[in-house]
Amino acid sequence: MPEQPTCTGTQGIDLIKQFEGLRLNRYLDAVGKPTIGYGHLILPHESFNRPLSESEALALLTRDLRSAELALRKLVRVAITQQQFDALMSFVFNLGAGRLHSSTLLRYLNAGQSSHAADQFLVWNKAGGKPLAGLTRRRQAERKLFLS
Prior knowledge:
Layout: H1 10-20, E1 23-28, E2 34-37, E3 40-41, H2 54-75, H3 82-95, H4 97-101, H5 104-110, H6 114-120, E4 126-127, E5 130-131, H7 133-147
């Protein structure tokens, strides 16, 4: 297989940062999980008893991206562009590699049908069965980056 992107590029990081937002103090995410920084889920062995600095938040994001990048590289079996990798990384960062693994998006992508795969981003805009404006904007931005 041709050389694949291995790391999230600037466009992908910017997209993730834009939609995750930066919160320097602990908070509960939309499903009630403790979170900090750019959407870092706080693990049971971690404690954040003080606000983060922006550089600490960026370091956490970078660490979180590394494990997601590894998972993505294992799932994608076709050559993709950096923009496609970045769009998929935003998706995986938000929803997890497991959701991508079982998705029609990945099936289309690995079958070489990237335009059909791109349209599948738009399906993932719901929480609790209802479309959310923020998720709709994120999926549209991911699709646009994937097709660029």
